[in-house]
Amino acid sequence: MAKGSKKGNAAQVKVTVPKAASADLVWQGIADEQLSYRATASHVDVRADDESLLGKMFNMAFVALDDGKPDPTRPVTFAFNGGPGSASVPIDFGGIGPKRVRPNGLEHIPATSPLEDNPYSILAKTDLVFLDALGTGWSKIAPGVEDSKVFGIDADADCFARAICAWLQDNGRWASPVYLFGESYGTVRNAALMRLLGERSVKLTGVVMLSAIFDWVQTQPGADSYYLGMMPTYAATAQHFGRAGVGVDVDEWFDQAMDFTEDVLAPALLKGDRLSADAERDVAERLSAFIGIPVEHIVAKHLRVDLTDFRATLLADEGKACGRLDTRFVSDAPSYVQTSNQWLAAEDAADDAVDSAWVSAFRAFCSDVLGYQGPARYFSSNYEKIGPAWQWKHTMQGAEEDAQAPNLALDIAIALRRDPTLKLAIVGGRYDAATTWWNVAHDMSCQYLSEALKARVRWYRYGCGHMAYVDEETNRAMGTDMRAFYDMA
After folding, report:
1. Most CB within 10 Å of its CB: which of 120, 331, 406, 423?
2. pLDDT digit string, tens, across residues 313-367
3. What does the CA dihedral 446, 448, 454, 456 come to, rounded to 10 degrees?
4. Could you give the domains of the chain?
5. Whole-prediction pTM value?
6. Is residue 244 within 8 Å of 238, Cβ to Cβ?
7. What CA–CA distance (Å, rounded) separates 291 from 279?
8. Are 426 and 460 spatial neighbours (Cβ–Cβ below 8 Å)?
9. Do 321 and 237 form a contact (C-beta atoms < 8 A)?
10. What 3-state DSSP class applies to 151?
11. d(Cα 233, Cα 429) in Å, to the nearest integer?
12. Integer CA distances (angstroms), 487 to 236, 423, 483, in order
């Protein structure tokens, strides 16, 4: 077959998806605030430059209506979760969308919990488009498309850039201020997109990073930046359970832990076995007072307590294990035969308490409200397939070297330097042990942005975990702060 013919066939690949469905609704916000909007479940084509189909990306869009019509100049925000391998139901039906499942504090959300209007939704300020990455949710990869075209830092960002442009084109929204709102790995995607969209002449107005991770080095075995990042989160967790910091203001305690991390723990870890035994014990005693783990345990670990160890040890005397995404959540400790670190790392009371309720509510909304009939299987998480195929290699911009554990803070800094009108919000919680606050603060501080550019960055730290919206107090505060951020000139 001639090359031209093969290319032509690729452009004609068919992928069958359900017909788009929509409904016009009214959102009830805070007090008497109301807004008419259209909710639409559909797919957008993701096409390469030669028009060959890479896949069809499922999206749930909420667009405000003025006399029954969308406003083509209203801001539009593209939002997503991460994984990699996660669909975007949590940030939608748990977080910032106009509909939500009511939070239940640190308890499991009952299966019968109904949907309600989310009074803190940023629909008040922006239209919202929630995108599921190819291979997740109801998004489909076109037949014959290689994993390398979809699964990887750069491939994923490319697919999302194409999907965003296609949605703007299909909906006539090129006059709208464009925002990105990413959570977890979605912040890695955000970082790559900030630079990539700019290079493709798509101007962004603002970016929100919720529960962020930028430098992938901290995920590598033995990286001291991992232990440094965990320490303030451990301290906050120990205080929550009454094992440390009793009577101290929670933010003051966290700030003390941040200082200890940088002024005491970091120099100690840097010395390795050049740190004397007496000095190591002294640091261990001070660390124990912060994180509630016995001194001897910390000494045996040479000041390096990993998360699985911490989760299993802190509440061991109660027969409990604390969560990962939100360390305030607890469950019974696993069986004595369940000792696999990889398995324990994936067992998380914080995720178990909320995820299935959100997905069930989303599916009911699609079916009962929109009349959208998706496939029986919705891949809320497809890490089993996507994770092993994921390419972590990313070109370190300016160094022109491919890194297997890249630092995407460089991409953020590039985007800000190229466009000093761009604004950035960094949002996180004290109890997030999946993407820790210290690491994000450290990574951004090492970009040495000018004072003018740093003034374009807003920092919001709450008393929550990874999924900030499980906490009603945080929902209220974040709703107020995000409105102010969108109003920021």
Report:
1. 406
2. 999 999 999 999 999 999 998 887 777 777 777 778 888 888 889 999 999 999 9
3. -90
4. 3-217+354-487 (3.40.50.1820), 226-352 (no CATH)
5. 0.94
6. yes
7. 18
8. yes
9. no
10. coil
11. 9
12. 32, 11, 6
